[in-house]
Amino acid sequence: MILSYFVQILKLPGNENVNLPRKMSEQASGYDLFAAIEGDLTLAPGARALVPTGIALAMPGGLEAQIRPRSGLALKHGITCLNTPGTIDADYRGEIKVLLINLGQEPVTIARNERIAQMVFQAVPSVTMVEVEELTDTERGAGGFGHTGK
Ligand SMILES: O=c1ccn([C@H]2C[C@H](O)[C@@H](COP(=O)(O)OP(=O)(O)OP(=O)(O)O)O2)c(=O)[nH]1
């Protein structure tokens, strides 16, 4: 079943010429995000930058957007998102920004309107956490961190 939602998108003042997030193929999961920067931005090795996209969203409750790296930028240049996946909350109305980091050994220049990351929408279940004195039992119990390999 394909869930469908309406999401409002706004070009922020001064960003009338930015590209809207775009799916590069019909069934792509992610909408590519474009750098809404004036001129170029060079990231030295190890440097990070919060890159504006010039857009804001209004999503219905129960939806989030995840900001994920692009594999091509990561492979070719070592550019990824530091806080991946970035979380865009349904109630956030500010500018979507992308926290890029250069994990490569060379400086990398990002150009205006370059595709810097992708945005994937996800449904978020409604959860009510209930504090208890004891948890239900399972075969795994507290085993983890490679427990099943032993
Ligand atoms: O990659 C990101 C991550 C977050 N945000 C925006 C949307 C999100 O709804 C808001 C808050 O993000 P998050 O909850 O990750 O940040 P926080 O450090 O917990 O800050 P806050 O106290 O504002 O929630 O910042 C972005 O634009 N890009």
TrEMBL record:
Top-level lineage group: Bacteria
Key words, A-Z: Hydrolase, Magnesium, Metal-binding, Nucleotide metabolism
Pathway this chain belongs to: Pyrimidine metabolism; dUMP biosynthesis; dUMP from dCTP (dUTP route): step 2/2
Presence of keyword Chaperone: no
GO term, biological process aspect, one: dUMP biosynthetic process
Enzymatic reactions: dUTP + H2O = dUMP + diphosphate + H(+)
Signal peptide range: none
Pfam families given in the database record: dUTPase
SUPFAM superfamilies, per database record: dUTPase-like (SSF51283)
Domain dUTPase-like: from-to ranges: 17-149
InterPro entries the record matches: dUTPase (IPR008181), dUTPase-like (IPR029054), dUTPase-like_sf (IPR036157), dUTPase_trimeric (IPR033704)
Co-factor requirement: Mg(2+)
Enzyme class: hydrolase
GO molecular function: dUTP diphosphatase activity; magnesium ion binding
UniProt binding sites for substrate: 70-72, 83, 87-89
Enzyme nomenclature, EC number: 3.6.1.23
HAMAP family: dUTPase_bact
Job of this protein: This enzyme is involved in nucleotide metabolism: it produces dUMP, the immediate precursor of thymidine nucleotides and it decreases the intracellular concentration of dUTP so that uracil cannot be incorporated into DNA.
Family named by the database record: Belongs to the dUTPase family.
Descriptive protein name: Deoxyuridine 5'-triphosphate nucleotidohydrolase
Organism: Paenibacillus apii
Organism classification: Bacteria, Bacillati, Bacillota, Bacilli, Bacillales
